[in-house]
Amino acid sequence: MSEFARFLFGRRARRRWIHLILGGALAMPYVFVGQLVVGPATDSRYVFHDLPLQLLSFAVGLPLAALTAALFPLTRSLEAGAVRSLCGIDAHRLAHGPARTRAAKGRTAAWFTLHLGFGGIISGMSLAVPPFAVFLVALPFIEWPADNRLGLPEVLDHAWVPALAPVAGLAMLVGLAACAAGSGTLLARWAPALLGPTPEDRVAAAEARAADLAVRNRLARELHDSVGHALSAVTLQASAARRVLDTDPEFVREALAAIEDTTRRTVGELDAVLGVLRDGDAPGTAPAPTLAADLDGLLRRTRAGGLRVTATVDADPEALPPVLSREAYRIVQEGLSNALKHAGDQVSVTLRIAIADEHLEISVENPLEHTPSCRPGGGHGLRGIADRARLLGGTAQAGAAQGVWRLSVRLPLKGPA
Known about the structure:
Number of strands: 5
Strand order of the largest sheet: 1-2-3-5-4
Radius of gyration: 38 Å
CATH class of the largest domain: Alpha Beta
Distance between the termini: 66 Å
CATH architecture of the largest domain: 2-Layer Sandwich
Number of domains: 2
Helix content: 55-70%
Oligomer: single chain
Strand content: 5-15%
């Protein structure tokens, strides 16, 4: 019994009743338009006073409602929002955007017609039934004039009518609640089928998630390469400066200047990346570094930490495409950063950048005997290099060979952007 009472008068039932009344309110403009059609067609001046004509106006207005839903794609978004809030349907079962395809528009039109149809009927019952039910419940306590000047039906003169009237009134209220709960349950059951995402919507959502994930992965690579390289370089620069603090003041000054330059540039790049991650913030204005703009500066700051870097550049950085130049800069930066972190500042690193067979070739080498095993949790840098190379249509290889740790990257000059 409690389950039945909850079905009729529970919180969910009440919210769905409100949803139906909202549908009835939305149906009223279409009913008025239907009256403009039914009145002249039936030669009736007072359609509003005739219940059959009102129902006919309602029937004429529903196709107009379906046409409205088909013509305005945002109807699906508005209806789905109302269903999520009032009918207790999980958000993932409903579409979030406007109806774009013909199938989606057709289903939205069908839903809108059902919502307004059921809502109009339940709204009319909600207006008419409660007052009459209250009248029946109060009937035994009302004294009528003996001369029946109120024009009441003669059936009220029977003695059994006042005795059964309260029961009939309560039954009418329960029947109204049952109609509202049943209609609300039907609409809630049909909502996912009519307002749910179409296959095209699911594909679009998957593509949007993939694009968002790609952006986040790119930002993660930027943070790893930029901040990771800066921390490694600054750590070694500070360590080298501390060791020769009393014997080589000139080197200390160069190391401190390199630390200042490295941190200033990294803060700018970090602000640019975080600006993209923060909702509502515009991206930072720090330009992305490229080989053309900062290869010499990158080598200078790396050498300031004591790492001996021999660089051979057989390519014109100014002639490289901007995207290729930017990604190549990050690859070189990560290669030098790996040497700093894993080989230390006591080895010599050989960097070579050249163009061969319409490809930009980058190699970073350092002696293997000075390179300790990878730190726990490491490997993100090499994975990031491989991702960058793959997105540009190139290849990346890293490993030990003949006592040398070698990173080799090959990028097409005219690859996918």
